[in-house]
């Protein structure tokens, strides 16, 4: 009811209805609906909006010579509406808190594999998930932590639900990350989520776990996505979207940590004897293998001259006894370099 023009319009409407007893037209009702929408957008409560209208109605209602019975009736209506709206809003706030608590408890149980499978599946149906089907989980990580109330999370949710609807898709947050759970056979949902999350988080990274069946499958896909994000951080993988299925070789390589540590120290340990330590030569090997063993591209990545790059590769050969350019030696060196990145060597003693 803010603004002179708005008050005048509604006052005139009240006066006309009081004089003629007519019903409101469709346009007049649409106008009131628009006022209600504007009030909600401005953060005004339903109770306040209704009370404003009752007060304005009472003020604009024509006085008659027969007394003020209409005014007394409207005064009573004002009190009754205020009390009813207060009780309604109180119950609504309680229901929202209970729903949020139920939803958060369910999400925690789902992503950590807690609760019985039967009970979990029953609760999942309330959110449109059929856990007997295969599901996959995408996890987005940005430069800051996000909650479900965060504008970033709301923006991503609106984009995904606006395109695919809400059925069978669960969007949430966990430990500051954005999460999307979707049917495993509908990769378009996860890819669209990844695209929107990458943009909304200003270049955040998204990992998509493999599809698995059952409630335990959701947990497995979620943990795969988390592991892939951790792996990307350790290996310096900067692709905006990573698929766990494409990174399966790394868990295999690190399954026996001690064996990998032995390979790293025995193969790359001699690089510590180089002037400046192992770091520069390890960076050279990393760039060389990342470039597909194309020496010129590796040199550009390192901002080195061809001569300097050649010297470094030769020095690596001298120290380790393995030649990076020899296909017979290359696999051992490359595996050791991957292990060094995963184990944070030479920063950590193995």
UniProtKB/TrEMBL annotation:
Residues covered by the PucR C-terminal helix-turn-helix domain: 281-337
All residue ranges annotated as the CdaR GGDEF-like domain in the record: 113-230
InterPro entries named among the record's database cross-references: CdaR-like_regulators, CdaR_GGDEF, PucR_C-HTH_dom, PucR_C-HTH_sf
Domain of life: Bacteria
Family designation: Belongs to the CdaR family.
Protein name per UniProt: PucR family transcriptional regulator
Organism of origin: Streptomyces boluensis
Lineage: Bacteria, Bacillati, Actinomycetota, Actinomycetes, Kitasatosporales
């Amino acid at each position: 009811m803010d603004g002179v023009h708005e008050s005048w319009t509604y006052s005139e409407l009240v006066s006309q209805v009081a004089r003629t007893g007519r019903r409101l037209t469709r346009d007049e009702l649409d106008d009131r609906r628009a006022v209600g929408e504007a009030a909600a957008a401005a953060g005004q409560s339903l109770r306040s909006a209704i009370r404003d209208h009752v007060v304005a109605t009472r003020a604009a209602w024509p006085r008659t010579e027969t007394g003020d019975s209409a005014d007394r009736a409207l005064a009573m209506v004002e009190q009754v509406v205020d009390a009813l709206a207060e009780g309604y809003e109180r119950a609504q706030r309680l229901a929202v808190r209970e729903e949020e608590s139920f939803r958060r408890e369910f999400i925690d149980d789902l992503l950590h594999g807690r609760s019985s499978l039967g009970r979990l599946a029953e609760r999942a149906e309330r959110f449109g998930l059929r856990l007997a089907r295969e599901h996959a989980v995408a996890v987005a990580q940005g430069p800051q932590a996000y909650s479900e109330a965060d504008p970033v999370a709301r923006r991503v949710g609106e984009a995904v639900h606006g395109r695919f609807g809400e059925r069978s898709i669960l969007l949430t947050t966990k430990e500051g990350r954005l999460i999307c759970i979707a049917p495993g056979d509908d990769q378009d949902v996860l890819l669209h989520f990844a695209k929107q999350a990458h943009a909304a988080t200003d270049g955040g990274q998204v990992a998509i776990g493999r599809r698995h069946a059952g409630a335990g499958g959701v947990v497995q896909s979620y943990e795969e996505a988390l592991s892939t994000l951790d792996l990307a951080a350790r290996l310096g993988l900067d692709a905006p979207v990573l698929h766990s299925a494409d990174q399966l070789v790394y868990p295999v390589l690190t399954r026996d940590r001690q064996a990998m540590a032995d390979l790293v120290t025995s193969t790359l340990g001699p690089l510590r004897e180089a002037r400046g330590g192992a770091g520069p030569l390890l960076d050279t090997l990393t760039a060389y293998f990342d470039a597909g063993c194309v020496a010129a591209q590796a040199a550009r990545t390192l901002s080195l001259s061809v001569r300097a790059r050649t010297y470094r590769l030769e020095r690596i050969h001298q120290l380790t006894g393995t030649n990076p350019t020899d296909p017979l030696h290359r696999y051992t060196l490359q595996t050791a370099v991957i292990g060094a990145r995963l184990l944070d060597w030479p920063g950590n003693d193995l």
